[in-house]
Amino acid sequence: MQDFVFRKALPGDIAACAHIYDRIIEEQDKGGFVIGWVHGIYPTAETAEAALKNDELFVCEYDGKVVASGIINKTQVDIYAAIPWRETADARDDEVCVLHTLTVSPDITVRGCGTAFVDFYENYATAHGCRNLRIDTNVKNTRARKLYAKLGFREAGVERCTFNGLRHIDLVCLEKRLPVCVRKYSPRDKEDMRFICRVTADKIFKQSDKTRTAVTTVYNDYFTEQEPEHIFVVADENDRAVGYIVCCADFDKFENCMKKIYIPKLVKFCPFLTPVGFYSIHAAKQTAPTPHLHMDILPQYQRRGWGTKLMNALREQLKSEGYPLLSVCGAAAGSPGYKMYTKYGFRPVKNSRSKRVTLMIDT
Fold this sequence. Notes:
The chain is of the alpha+beta class. Helices cover 37% and strands 27% of the residues. It has helices spanning 14-29, 45-53, 113-127, 142-150, 190-200, 209-226, 251-269, 274-285, 306-320, 336-344; strands spanning 5-8, 57-62, 65-73, 96-104, 132-138, 154-163, 166-177, 181-184, 232-235, 241-248, 292-297, 325-332, 347-351, 356-362. A 7-stranded mixed sheet has the order 1-2-3-4-5-7-6. The chain has a 7-stranded mixed sheet with strand order 8-9-10-11-12-14-13, with helices on both faces. A hairpin with a 5-residue loop joins strand 9 and strand 10. Helix 1 runs antiparallel to helix 2 and helix 7 packs antiparallel against helix 8.
């Protein structure tokens, strides 16, 4: 069986999206279900075109055909201000992600597309720094309301309004706050990341306060201080970082900063670990100019799929910036980390004399 494939829409997808809109309204008019849309008013091809122009239109393919679409952005309609939000009430506007105009073709031959699209929306939202989700639909659209309830969305309130040209609509607004999620790095995460780095470090770095500071100097501080735009964290229910993935996308900057800033710090307070700083440069040089990553997750959050979600978020970020590959430097052959990366899809490309392996994957 083919899998659902989600991607940003292209200009050639507009006709398929408009066809799905029309087919849904046709089936509604036959009495199969009620969704509350009206042909020629909403949604139309212009709805999809406007979303495409704003880079907010997404489609789902199945067996090579577009079978679903949705609009994902941070745009909240005016009526949201009147809704008594509870789970997402304290969220800033830039921390709220909204799914609009979710459509699934009535002609699709397999089940689960709507659920998969909402899952994609949740992953996309958290990867872009939003753990607070909102959706709206017509009160009459009982099928959508049942689906959203099943997926953990809470109905926060109903308001009568004119909505996208449709008059006298009772709009039900739904919300969901993800308890644990992947989001972009914030400066408030820096000390939590240093703690995670120390907890998950090798034994050699746990001998004293100096050695614990050394490991954060080499494997943490450069990234939070020089390339924070390439960091994603796993945030717990209290929005505290419990795992992270960091990435060096600029090797020349990495080498320069390590030699001028971070290795001198090692020389000053932990000289016997100075070679670790030089090794980090040597390892990164093996894959330059390909970006390389480090990832650490607290033990109690391991083996739950968060590593996969962190890597998914980073790969999407790097792909959007034009990087074709991502690497892991110096994974110990046969180690749990090596097994995790190869299971995810990284391929070994180079072995060192120390039996450490460089791995790469397409973004």
